[in-house]
Amino acid sequence: MSELPIETSQQGVELDALRLLLRRLRVTPEQLLAQTTQPVTMPTFDEYIKKVSAAVPEGSRRLYSTYWRKISEQWGHRRLDEPTPSEIRQLAEHVKRNVVRRRNARGGRSAAEHLISAIRCLYQYAVADQLIAQADNPAARVAKPRRLDSTRRALPDNRLAEIIYVAGTTGDDPDLDTLILRLHIETACRRGGALALTRADLDVEQCLIQLHEKGETVRWQPVTPTLMQALLDHFDERGGEEPTDQILRYRNGKPITYRRYDYLWQRLGKHLSWVAAQQISIHWIRHTTLTWVERHCGYAVARGFAGHNSGRTIGVTATYVRADLQEIAQALAELTGEPHPLAASTVAPPQPPA
């Protein structure tokens, strides 16, 4: 009697193992045959951009919406699984070449970077929705352009004084504009944090404000008693009522938007030629304050003052050298010359020159 071929014997062992597995899972072969796989309907870019736009946070939507429109213009009718990495690179170059030229333009590198980030966001959701496997994600194989060093820097004291003077003596609402500038000088907050500030975010007793900034971060930041009182008076005088009402408001009671910042810096640029030439913006105020804090109070306090306490970019040592709220309050007291209730020591106000 001849022996069975090795292939047939091995196949029988595998079938026995499969039958044993099915019995343990209480699954019959008939049930397996009855299961039908539903084909995946691959959406077009137009269809999927609408879905992702409704799912991302407001900050991401505001950043990516311009670039999603550009993607839609070029590929709106195409399915997500059609473009290749080389086509994504070509689209990024197209956006880079056709970027709107401004004084602070840097060859369209930022536009290309944001385009790639916007399309990566789409494909990250597509992978999560199991429309595309991560290994088939074309955006993951496209590198972003290397980011150039920022041209922003700290402003000298005399230049900052010029900005404050012009803001307080020109325009249709100098009280509002000087309050905006003081808020940013004292806290080094971002524009979004100032616009999101509500009455409920004010801890009057401890002179703290709660900032809601990019990346959905939330932090408490010390302010001087003078600024706290100014925010309260501004809110009450301009029709604020509910705890959730925005602090910064026009004279007619309507909350301000990003347009107020645009108007402010355009006006400053008309009166101060160097502001227009260097494209100074509110983020330069953040650089100015944080540079002063770092020079006078150290790197750890500057990170805490800026809300950069994650420590992801400088290693785990940041966990042990993180500045606390009292140290940040102390830095503010030294910066402004005004005592703060949380500061470790009382700071005497600067004396006028003899």
Automatic annotation (TrEMBL):
Swiss-Prot/TrEMBL GO biological process terms: DNA integration; DNA recombination
Highest taxon, organism lineage: Bacteria
Pfam families noted in UniProt: Phage_integrase
Sorted UniProt keywords: DNA recombination, DNA-binding
Sequence ranges assigned to domain Tyr recombinase in this UniProt record: 143-333
GO molecular function, one term: DNA binding
Family the UniProt entry places it in: Belongs to the 'phage' integrase family.
Name by which UniProt lists this protein: Tyr recombinase domain-containing protein
Organism: Paractinoplanes toevensis
